[in-house]
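Morning!

This is the sequence you dropped in the shared folder:
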Amino acid sequence: MNKRHLVAFAAMLAVSGVLTATNVRAQGSSNAKPDAATAKPEAEAASKRTPAPHDAYVYIGWPNDGEVVRTTHIKVWFGARNIGVAPAGTDKPNTGHHHLLIDVPLPPLDEPIPNDKNHLHFGLGQTETFIDLPPGTHTLQLLMADGDHIPHDPALMSKKITIHVVGGEKPPKVASQ
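The structure's back. Tokens below.
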């Protein structure tokens, strides 16, 4: 298994709660020191970004910018053009997977995207999801990343949209018989 696959595997385990990011070492568990002639500094490896297709883009298909959503359980679907959607860990040119950013600015583009309640990973190649948001105004933005969760170069991101969650919609009353 190469370093890229080890990092992707460790990231998937971290997502499942088996490991935390601080317990994962990209070099594996070997105590042997790497050969200085062949070893790459971790900073250099982390900053290497996968090229994005020149005409690719991603977008949020639903909800629309400015949408008033009358439920707190919201369906969001993602779109991508001129780039393939593939599971995390896939090392294939012109592919990536979606990350949904909720109420946060863009993360550093030369590092793996964080994985928390505001940075949702769709590492199985999903193109839609349901999210639960409290009533209020929220921002959503997609950021595509490679198999190691590092944004492409240049970054493929959707427009940041704003939605207004009203929530609390009650089902219509049924007339008594």
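Headline: Helices lie at 3-15, 42-47.

More detail when I'm at my desk.
O.
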